[in-house]
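During data preparation, a discrete fold description was generated, and the record follows.
___
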Amino acid sequence: EDFTLAEIKSLDAGSWFDPKFKGEKMMTLQETIDLVKGKAGLFPELKVPGRLRAKGFDPEQTVADILRKNGLVGAMVKGRPAVHMQVFEEDSVRRLAKLLPEVPRSFLLSAAPGTARWLTPEGLAEVKTFATGIAPAYQIIDRDPDVVVRAHAAGLTVVPYTFILRPATTPSYPDAPPAVRQQLEAQLQSLPTTREALTAQMRKFVEVYKVDGMFTDYPDLFPR
């Protein structure tokens, strides 16, 4: 929110992922819709909407207006909803429920201890009043696979994140507090190191845990 669109467009959005993507530019939501509409679904996340609202923006209303302008509210693609929203902040999901009741909404849940209240039968029943699904960190399900059973019993979909390979070079996170840095490093060490291992991990979540979908940077490795 501290940059103009022109400044954002001047950034290299590809090199961090792979040198072959050097020079790729950030896309606006409208540019993404123009590229994807009718070919696949969209699963956008609202990032820090509360912070944006504090600065005078209205991210939920803006997204609702863009989706309606493009005829995506209530639309389907390949038999599934054309758009599925997600956000970490409870108040934002509740607002999306009022602005876009026809659009599926997932409540993102981190592995932090404070999210445990949402994973009980009572918590999931409350989530159902403002969301259509949960999107938990996959570690949550690995520790307690019954989360999927409880969520499905509450009528919620389950789409965990993020299935990735361990990076070849471990980031140092020099600005993070020691405890946070230690936690991040432990998470990195737990990641699969081979493509075969990542496919096996995803297969377990689909076939054993019965999740409804997943987020991954490696869709080519998704078990089919």
Q: What stands out?
A: The longest strand covers residues 105-109. The chain has a mean pLDDT of 93. Strands lie at 76-77, 80-81, 85-87, 105-109, 133-136, 157-158. The first helix runs from residue 5 to 9.
